[in-house]
């Protein structure tokens, strides 16, 4: 496995693979890898002949007061884990390599249909930051396949839309959420939790499952389900930003006849902001 941090050398490697007729897969990450990321890598390794994992903590997707400076950076361990999985190339650029003119005033890719709702409402500019860096990674690596986790479900929807709107010849694959044994979705941010908070954190998933069960049981009072979710989380000591039932395909409010739903939430537990979701398919 090779680690490269310059755009032009990555382009050279990928061009050589393409000359051999290889299908190229990309798994974009911000590093600090856990089993959730590794499951995405395995998903990419199946259809792709060569797999690139990018490791870049993207300053453009963090808002003021968010955890850009403290986001855990564990490049050595990440490299060991990826080498063990059989990844071909790690692309770990510096911020200067990605934004040589700085992030202020840089050209932005945005998906306004989604960037103002749910997560986007509470993190203004976040999805434009994600969409911009992912577009740059797509342009640098030119993958045939790109894998993103279902855990950041709105991000996955934004990227699917971006690929369609910009006519990019890339197949986007969503990887199932990987959970700890007690149900907590794996996330690099879980390590910010104190032990007491960590013990309590699976309540987030339980609230989502309770909402999912109500939908499966035939309930269609979305607002009631959402309010009950907010109340349950608050009672459990969370500070929820949202708890919403949406259509799985486009995150719009459900309509009569819909059969695929996603219940999404974001909530603070102490100083840690957690997000999670469950998907429900009827029939
Ligand atoms: O999901 C992430 O880790 C990031 O948002 C991504 C897709 C790597 C873009 O920086």
Describe the secondary structure blueprint for this structure.
Blueprint: E1 2-4, H1 7-19, E2 24-29, H2 35-45, E3 50-55, H3 75-85, E4 89-91, H4 95-98, H5 112-115, H6 119-122, H7 126-141, E5 145-149, H8 153-165, E6 171-175, H9 195-200, H10 203-216, H11 222-235, E7 239-247, E8 260-269, E9 272-281
Parallel strand pairs: 1-4, 2-3, 2-5, 3-4, 5-6
Antiparallel strand pairs: 7-8, 8-9
Bound molecules: pantoate.
Described by strand count, sense and barrel closure, the largest sheet is: 6 strands, parallel
Oligomer: single chain
Helix and strand run:
EHEHEHEHHHHEHEHHHEEE
CATH architecture of the largest domain: 3-Layer(aba) Sandwich
Strand content: 15-25%
Helix-strand category:
alpha/beta
Task: Enumerate the spans where pLDDT stays under 50 for 5 or more consecutive residues.
Answer: none
What topology, given as strand order, has the largest sheet? 1-4-3-2-5-6
Q: Choose one word for the global shape.
A: globular
Percentage of residues in helical conformation: 25-40%
DSSP E strands, number: 9
CATH fold category name of the largest domain: Rossmann fold
For the record, the CATH class of the largest domain is: Alpha Beta
* CATH homologous superfamily grouping of the largest domain: HUPs
Taking all Cα atoms into account, the compactness measure Rg is 19 Å
What is the domain total for the residues?
Answer: 2
